[in-house]
Amino acid sequence: MADDSSTPTPRFRMAIIGGGIAALSLAVTLGRYADGSSPIQIDMYEAGPEITTVGAGISVWPRTWVIMRELGLYEELASEAVKANDSSGGEHLKPAFFYRKSDWPQEGFEYARVMMPNGGTTMHRAEMVGVLLRHLPTNCSIHTSKKLLGYEEVSEDGRTTYMLHFADGTTAVADVVIGADGIKSKTRASMYDLAHKVDCSDPEATKREECRQCRHATPKWTGIVTYRYLIPSDRLREINPTHRALDTPALLSYSGKHKFVEQILLQHIVTYPISHGKFVNFVGFVTQEGAEGATYPHKWVINATREEVVSHYSGWEPEVEQMLRCVENPTVWAIHVLDSLPFSVRGQVALMGDAVHAMTPHIGSGGGQAIEDAFILGRFLADPRTTLARVEVVLRIYQDIRLQFGLGVVQRSDKVGRMCEFDYPGLYDGAPVPASCKEDELDLTKERLGELGRAIEDVWSWQVKEHVEDQWDEAKSRYEALFSEKQRDTSAVGKAKNYWSRVCPIM
Ligand SMILES: Cc1cc2nc3c(=O)[nH]c(=O)nc-3n(C[C@H](O)[C@H](O)[C@H](O)COP(=O)(O)OP(=O)(O)OC[C@H]3O[C@@H](n4cnc5c(N)ncnc54)[C@H](O)[C@@H]3O)c2cc1C
Ligand SMILES: *[C@@H]1O[C@H](CO)[C@@H](O)[C@H](O)[C@H]1NC(C)=O
Ligand SMILES: *[C@@H]1O[C@H](CO)[C@@H](O)[C@H](O)[C@H]1NC(C)=O
Ligand SMILES: *[C@@H]1O[C@H](CO)[C@@H](O)[C@H](O)[C@H]1NC(C)=O
Fold it and tell me: From what superkingdom does this record's organism come (predicted)?
């Protein structure tokens, strides 16, 4: 490339691996906070032939909207969201997520109603990706059909740089590498291979997969699969013009439980409108009790049959039965998670998004957490004071602020999933109600369901009670401490080191 003397030399060369929500949000944040005097060279490497997205619906919650406002994308993204029929503005609490008991042929029973300042906001993933793409900084070069196989640490004039190897046989060099390559991250695989080989002292563990620490870098099957398809709203309206899934500008969970002789299947269905109400996004969950941690026997995403979907929810309330009449081209997705990754940073390489904290979809927060990672990482790296020499310590502050928090969200999501499938110890357990049961027995069930509902609402409350701004303030003060003369060695750097040894005894 020709050297343009009017542009300053880049502070460092950064490679972003992946082109999903995490990667795009990072690039947008870098563009938003970049300082013209000190640009960074950004190269984004995406495995697929184009920047696109798999899956249909995505829900967006209050913490994410706060970041979107900071990034100047609020209005544009909000115009993609399915709106509540309400013009009273954003600050009132509105219903966001309804939970119903639906595993009986009579009308379901609503047992929880999660309220949020914006209600539940939902959209098509492609619409979110479109908004992010339109705001990419021009000096972020996108390279498609570049599937990373792995990276190597290379010593160059006493500094560490990274050699990236791609599936097409090509290589690239970078000073800083950000792995935003999703749950099957090759960046993470390389990072843990290196860490295991170089730093692990666990004598019993020879293979990385068997190492006490490093095995957590391998995704775990949750025992859950989800059946996904889109229902054209007009079709469902013909069947039932007042179907809740059509008119509720919020998410709905139809919950239940099936006990077979040999196996217990826990089930629920989540629906919400997307694409300005043109479609209802259907996600049917089936949890095989006892299968958590087992190896999933199929490919992670495959086509399913209509019969398979119907078999799981037959005999449920009429609204469910009506949606099952609209099954078309269903797919089945195995849900894997990363719930205890010991570290997300090594040298000048950091992981973000699903590469760090892939989670169940029960509180629709995987994308939001990816965006929170991007916001802090992006602001840190955009700051001209983050010189190459400081990248390592800055990344450790990012890890310190974000890793445990993200993993905490993985736990919260898991908890809500168990609760809404009537499988959480001490709460309503889904004991079947006989059709002929007496009124007072039903009252007892409803009382137990009310208790369950309050527990679910309580888990959700972090979205409004824990402020993303506070997390940024903490990150910022840790960052600023790097430059305050008195504290230079003892504060941020010291803390990062302590954290390091506390969390990961192998490093
Ligand atoms: C059923 C379901 C429902 C969900 N619902 C919600 C929701 O309502 N709200 C929400 O916030 N989240 C939701 N999520 C979670 C959300 O989809 C993820 O958390 C989010 O997509 C993570 O973004 P990411 O960029 O980290 O990873 P990904 O979206 O997986 O993107 C990774 C990118 O990297 C690329 N890539 C992968 N490997 C390589 C490689 N080796 N080299 C180069 N590129 C590579 C991929 O092609 C992809 O483009 C849901 C997930 C599921 C499964
Ligand atoms: C992109 O380049 C322009 C012009 O040199 C610069 O102002 C901007 O800061 C750069 N962006 C990033 C993210 O480095
Ligand atoms: C939306 O609100 C308007 C005015 O309050 C009302 O006339 C209309 O019926 C509402 N639509 C729906 C789908 O609830
Ligand atoms: C899955 O279904 C889609 C459309 O329904 C079809 O185009 C595709 O070929 C199917 N894939 C497989 C592997 O059967």
Answer: Eukaryota
